[in-house]
């Protein structure tokens, strides 16, 4: 809104600052942070009144989690409101990639909201059918991928290699949709402890803030040997807004959490990171930067696979953060150590930009 207004006026005087992506990104982060901190207390109070007993806690989970009974869920709405209001103020809404990202973020957020609502209403940890959820996610991700591909090419790039490896053609839409859906659900699986998911999302967003900026700049992209995608630089504003909104949410989600993110937030944020990686042609780098989420997902897949075939479990409980809880690690210990892992993996992902 402010960008379009300044553009119509010709960026006069101090409004010339809005021309610069870096200024708008910083402003977007601060705006989302400010909105989240201001509306957070009232919003959480409203959720607590509306939900009564809060998010259902699994009886077969770690016993320490039973103390969390009554904590409201759907806190992801706080993040989405903060991020979207910030984007409306600072984003160039004429960019097709922006709308692809917004569509996935809001679409996945809606699916997560319906799942959270079903859980709260039925007082059960079982929400919307997994098949229905995945079908909806693939439709949304497929449409966004089609919109991106129509102006972005279908080449696959890999870390440590200069230039595209292969042109996937029409199959790229399927590949891109899979990346978006997979990462949305990976973040969703990680969201099981206070602060566990949101800080790695912020860290991954910081990494893709850098990646989106470099990919969107022709000179930097040529120097580093990475794909240049005109218009991708605007996604730095989205990543910045996620950072601001995420930090505001963490203020209330820090142990002991006053509110849970729920599927509303985890699916939306994971999907947003997935679609940003598709726009930037850094889908495989996302698996490195977001390696913590990948590890959590693989732990669930392995647990289910071996249990169905052998009747035995690899981990004491999956996802793997619960395994460490069962080993005796306190919740803050698990969370902080996983944050450290996430930070190291983000640095490893950024290192691939130069090692080509």
Written overview of the protein:
The structure is a single chain. With about 350 residues, the chain is mostly helical. The chain has one domain (about 25-350). The chain is built from 14 helices and 2 strands; from the N terminus they run H-H-H-H-H-E-E-H-H-H-H-H-H-H-H-H. The chain has helices spanning about 1-10, 20-50, 75-90, 95-120, 130-150, 170-190, 200-215, 220-225, 235-255, 260-280, 285-290, 290-310, 320-325, 330-350; strands at about 155, 165. The longest helix is centred in the first third of the chain and has 31 residues, at about 20-50.
Shape: globular
Give the helices and strands as they follow along the chain: HHHHHEEHHHHHHHHH
Distance between the termini: 39 Å
Low-confidence runs: none
**Strand percentage, roughly?**
under 5%
Q: Share of helix among residues? A: 55-70%
Radius of gyration: 20 Å
**Number of structural units classed as domains:** 1
SS-based class: mainly alpha
Most strands sheet: 2 strands, antiparallel
Give the strand order of the largest sheet, numbering strands 1, 2, ... along the chain. Answer: 1-2
Q: Round the mean pLDDT to the nearest integer and report it.
A: 90
Tally of strands: 2
Number of helices: 14
Q: Could you outline the blueprint of secondary structure elements for this entry?
A:
Layout: H1 2-9, H2 21-51, H3 76-90, H4 96-122, H5 130-149, E1 155-156, E2 166-167, H6 171-190, H7 198-216, H8 218-224, H9 235-253, H10 262-279, H11 283-289, H12 291-310, H13 320-326, H14 331-351
Antiparallel strand pairs: 1-2
